[in-house]
Amino acid sequence: MSIFFFSFFLPLLLFPPCCSCCSRHLLLHGDANPSSSLAGMLQARDGNVTDGLRRYLARFGYASTPDDADGQLVVRLYQSTLGLPVTGRLDARTLDLLATPRCGVPDLQTNATARFAFFAGQPRWARAPGHFLLTYAVLSDPPYQPLPDHLPRGAVRAAFRRAFARWARVIPVRFREMRDYNTADVRVGFLAGDHGDGEPFDGPLGVLGHAFSPPSGQLHLDAAERWAVLGHDGDDPGSGAVDLESVATHEIGHVLGLAHSSVPDAVMYPSLKPRSRKADLTLDDVRGAQALYGSNPRFSLSSLSEPDTSSAAPAVATTRSPGKTTTTHTAILLLLVTVTPLLLLC
């Protein structure tokens, strides 16, 4: 079996048939933890979930328990929470999702019938009943990172206007951009690496952004990503581009008080593949927002053409607040791709 493994699987690991910007290439050729050598990882032949994967899952709310020696329980929890087939193994669909760029806010640990979800305590913006106003500002000046040359400030502002307008269409909340960043209710910034909030960014195609529950108003995007406005830019943004409008719409949902959804098509689902666009609210997103704020009287659910997949009862978050991590996305997922063939041999 050892001869078969090294003659067949090892070439696939070292020379994967993929483009230079896909997740697998980044895992194998990016800056990995030098202490996690390929030879060392190949010694884990029992197929158990590694310590690196446990740390990765714990970062997003999936804490292992002492009785979960092989890691199947925590993998099952991850799969059930995010709408995957529950196998308890690192199958192809699970690995694909683990390798997909995502939001840095932890997921929920909730029952299988729940869809949209809230943060613990269901925080929301407290204003007078009916339509009320939240202000926002987008900053790209020090100490925040400047915007990339290929993405003009006007395009960024327009993407955020459309993102805020999507939520304003379905709930009785208005949003207005303002110049004074310090006094705005919602403060958007592009940052890189460790930026002082306990949730450091990890570079391209890892954690895309994060936001904090009301009334914080902080919304941070990783300046290291190749941000693009898909569907509005004339030029090809490149194979590693991330749609700014989709991520902005998702993070605004967090700013309003929504946690992650288990519906893969929902805007509030935590993962987004490069060059993909998911900015239009689904019924799951709408029902979650309206559970917190009520419905915009000018909005009708019949204007959404998709079937309703929401549960009658939302989930309430039971996980911790975003916390600090020292394990990089690239190093952990390198470990995942390496261990996958081992699981197939078990």
**What is the alpha-carbon Rg in Å?**
21 Å
CATH superfamily of the largest domain: Collagenase (Catalytic Domain)
Report the principal-axis shape. globular
Low-confidence stretches: 1-47, 307-312, 318-346
Number of helices: 10
**Count of beta strands:** 9
What can you tell me about this protein's structure?
It contains 10 helices and 9 strands. A hairpin with a 6-residue loop joins β5 and β6. It is α/β, with parallel strands linked by helices and 346 residues long. The model is unreliable at 1-47, 307-312 and 318-346 (pLDDT under 50). The protein has 2 domains: 2-104 and 326-345, no CATH class; 117-316, Collagenase (Catalytic Domain) (3-Layer(aba) Sandwich). It has a 5-stranded mixed beta sheet with strand order 3-2-4-6-5, with helices on one face. A two-stranded parallel sheet has the order 1-9. A two-stranded parallel ribbon has the order 7-8. InterPro entries: M10A_MMP (IPR033739), MetalloPept_cat_dom_sf (IPR024079), Pept_M10_metallopeptidase (IPR001818), Pept_M10A (IPR021190), Pept_M10A_Zn_BS (IPR021158), Peptidase_Metallo (IPR006026), Peptidoglycan-bd-like (IPR002477), PGBD-like_sf (IPR036365). Ca(2+) 1 binds at residue 225. Ca(2+) 3 binds at residues 202-203, 222, 225. One of its GO terms (biological process) is extracellular matrix organization.
